[in-house]
Amino acid sequence: MSTFEIVIGLEVHTQLMTKSKIFCACSTQFGATPNTNTCPVCQGMPGVLPVLNRQVVEFAIRTALATNCQVSNHSVFARKNYFYPDLPKAYQISQYELPLAEHGRLEIKVGETAKPIGITRIHIEEDAGKLLHEYAGDTSGKYSYVDFNRCGVPLLEIVSEPDIRSPEEAKEYLITLRNILDYLEVSDCNMEEGSLRCDANISLRPVGSAVFGTRTEVKNMNSFRNVQRALEYEVERQTMLLESGQPVVQETRLWDADRGMTFSMRSKEEAHDYRYFPEPDLIPLTISDEWIQRIKAELPELAAARQQRFIEEYQLPEYDAEVLTSSKHLATYYEECVRLFPRPKVVSNWVMGDILRELKQQNADIRTCPVSPAHLAEMLKLVENNTISGKIAKTVFEEMYATGKMPVEIINAKGLVQISDEAQLEDVITRILAENPGPVAQYREGKTKTFGFFVGQVMKATKGKANPQLVNTLLKEKLEV
Fold it and tell me: What residue intervals traverse the membrane (predicted)?
């Protein structure tokens, strides 16, 4: 066993899904032409005044309550001063000494073990711009460009306590937090687009010690898997340093996913390095108890509660319920399918199997799935009433996904109706048995494994349209004569 204990704390920044920015009316649309979603306020022009977006506060309170935080009735904005090309004001409006919420927790599950992770604080701030070191309009590679569209996009910073003890726990914390934000519909949590970003602070200390070791901060991790990989690398790196008697340097490091390693970016700043000052252009934020209670009453069913309900109401295995509730939109899709075709486990098998497989291959979201709950439910009804076989259903599903057509339309167009006529199937079976006297003799001598061969031949002769149950029954009758 290692002689060192891992100590991890995570700082998560999530962009909020408001239509306008935090202090101005500019659009928050992602992917717009550079520097088109800007105005004097978010560009930091002299003499302009910020106006707080009420929806940002609503989303922040909603998140704080869902993570069991204490929402403060009184919080204050501050200027976080630092110089960087993508920060036009040379300061970022944030919160420091008096944040919107503190002292929360959420529960993660690693294997069969549940563990609470404390949340130190949640506060509101504005996002900075974005530096483009590669730009389609300039292939020389000599210049960097600044896009201010992201300036002023509302952010929540969610800071965990240093309660995380392994890279796997860090990954599970992020997944749990992502699910909460998804169910609350406050953020789309798209790490690739930068709407969910994570910085990890990690240190090692001797087992049994109460004193924290020197920590490093790791940035530039654009997926949950990369967060885990980066932290695993840091554990190895810091362990090697400590075991060889070398000190761990407090610094910020960047994760390189291609090389599978972190590298030094800069020495780690302390809070005083940012020179926080009170924001003079914004009055203190006052949140009434009535406002908090109203939002609390409107909170939706969250992932953990929905997962438990799926287990109890639909009698699903825990694994199925966990997968189906991993996204609010996926859970809603599943429930609509079950409403139209009330066979929960059958629906679960198709959604978790065929639906999710196709979505993964297309790198798509359930909201853009061409197979609607009505499509899937109609097809499952056709299987249940023996209009088509389970094998043919796979073909129908592929065509539905490719074209968006309803199952009946596909079945009629391709002549896929299941053959359930006994006389027709008897003729086919009689011919196949006559053509294969050897396997027939083997079966009658007790080598019953040849039965599968005959089933396969019948399905091949009928192009997969024979009713499997009827084929089994008729074959047994013929072979045992």
Answer: none
